[in-house]
Model the fold of this input.
Amino acid sequence: MAESLQDLLNRLAPLLVDGSPHAMALGFSLEGLGPGNAQMRAPYREDLVGDPETGVLHGGVVTALLDHACGIAAFSGLGASDTPATLDLRIDYMRPAEPGNDVVAEAECIRAHGLIAFVRATAHDGDISDPVATAQAAFMVTRPSAEAAARAKKAIETGDLS
Amino acid sequence: MSDDLIETLLAAPYVAKFGVRIERKGDELTGILPYAEHLVGNPLVPALHGGAVGAFLEIIASATLLASQPLLKLPKPIDVAVDYLRPARPEDVYARAFIGRAGSRVANVRAEAWQGRRDAQVATLHGHFLIKSAK
Done:
């Protein structure tokens, strides 16, 4: 029997964060992954603060979290075969995240067809009805991203992830 | 103009962690994001993380606002839109920002990031920042 999309996603999930040095450096963790959706957490950490006076996390952490969560939702929305590249990412910063709180991004692929995927995401620090930021992004399977996906597939098949 | 706040901006833990520097000639400012392995988003392309490049553009937009006029606080982003034009290679990234209009409360800013060639941008940003003018 062919592997279902959810089984494939479950198998690939650990690679989608651990395979990205920047996501690892920011301590991101993938909390949920389904066909066309992803939930990812950024921890509150002293070394990620943007304003030492207030202790608020730097906006860059939220930017990277939203980009990564949207990218994973686009990847799964496109059938988890090619790694799409970000075409554009638009973010509204609603309010600063509460110092001490982790930030969670919930991303949903609204439409994926052919090479393009459209994604919306909300970042919050505990209550999704009181968002820290919202984002809208478009992704595309570009030539470099398709070549990278082909190398990743080969690496997974041969077990050589170095 | 707000030199002490530029220092505060660059000394913030997140900004210092990624080693963002600026080179300044009066109110003209170029940002430098030195390459480090922890900036890589996808090692298989390989390309720097879009979030790292986007955050760098936001930082340089803020620094350019601080260099242009006396402000009482760090600028706060209201909204930003980042266009990704090419994969950012594992090399240093540079950025410059241009102020469209800055009033006493809000500023409209564009910024461009490039690597080897100035006219081959890897990403551009435009956004609005909340500012507190000293004027």
